[in-house]
Amino acid sequence: MKRCPIAVLMTLLVAGACQPPDVPSLEVGIPEDAAWRPTELTGDGMELPDPRDVIRRMTDFMGNHDDMRFEALVTYQAVQENGQKLNFDLLQRMAIRQPDRLFWTTLRDDGSTNTAWFDRGDFTLLRQPANVWGQVNLSPNIPEAVESLVYEYDLDVPFADMLIEGGQLWLGEEVTSTEYVGEAWVEGYWTDHVALRMPGADVQLWVRHGAEPFPARLNITYTEEEGQPSYSARFRNWGTTLPAGALPAFVPPPGSEELEVVAVYD
Question: Assuming Cys at both sites, which of 73, 144, 212, 227 could form a disulfide with 139, CB separation 3.0 to 4.6 Å?
């Protein structure tokens, strides 16, 4: 191997004279994925949008579609007795057909899954790898059924507040302040970043620009809980049509056991 005198080391390194002939030069490449290539922002940037208008544009758009599907990467915090916050991850997929059909799967970072079917009042939950399931009859209406699952059966339903309250969740009288933060590139889309406060929660939303103003990201800090834990979700694969099989019928898995489902709270 050719050696370089110390006195001229820096000069030769810059010039590349000491690089062995069989070592290729390294370049930091940018992936071809569109999420890595922000597009040019359009607009004059002179007037900031009203944060409530940003939220209303999102909720009106979503409320005008009966069919919807999405995937969310969720991280939530659990505060321990010693005050330390632990983070846990979920991968969630949901298909919605208003007014009376839901299907979702939650994959936890311990490898367990909850899969749920809601079909015109009939609700079924399957837990794996325990291979157990249960059924209960609820209201045929999605908001009322989800409210029962959360407040009577103590079940974690993905984005339950949004399913129960719709647009009023972010635009109701309980919202004490709203702020437009700015534009941000999230999951391959330019978004409007807004922040709002309500009793017990500081909320941030990132809403896509363009003709499909879906939420791209959600962050909630629970300000009245000990340790103020946070919850965050990054959304992807939004759609306003459901492909074949998006709302499957429940079929008990081989060897599974049916359990009785009882309400936790009256």
Answer: 144
The whole-number pLDDT of residue 98 equals: 97
pTM, 2 dp: 0.85
CA–CA dist 235, 169 (Å, integer): 18
What is the sign of the dihedral through the CA atoms of 119, 245, 111 and 129? positive
Q: Which two tokens stand for residue 168?
A: 């009023």
Q: Which residues of 52-77 are buried (b: 16+ CB within 10 A; e: fewer)?
A: eebbebbbebbeeeeebbbebebebb
Which pLDDT belongs to residue 168?
82
Domains parsed from the chain with CATH numbers: 51-258 (2.50.20.10)
Nearby residues of 94 by Cβ (< 8 Å), 6 or more positions away:
69, 70, 71, 72, 102, 103, 104, 158, 159
Query: 32 Cβ partners below 8 Å, 6+ apart?
Result: none
For residue 140, count other CB atoms closer than 10 A to its CB. 15
The whole-number average pLDDT for the span 16-39 is 62
Taking the C-alpha atoms of residue 40 and residue 58, their distance in angstroms, rounded to an integer, is 22
Higher local confidence (pLDDT), 192 or 6? 192
**Which residues does 75 contact at the CB level (< 8 Å), separation at least 6?**
87, 88, 89, 90, 231, 232, 233
Residue ranges of alpha helices (H) inside 125-262 are: 142-151, 160-165, 168-171
Integer Cα distance of 91 and 236 in angstroms: 11
Please name every residue paired with 67 in a beta bridge, in sequence order, or none if there are none: 97
Averaged pLDDT score across all residues of the chain:
89
Q: What is the pLDDT of residues 213-254, one digit of tens each?
A: 999 999 999 999 999 999 999 999 999 999 999 999 999 999
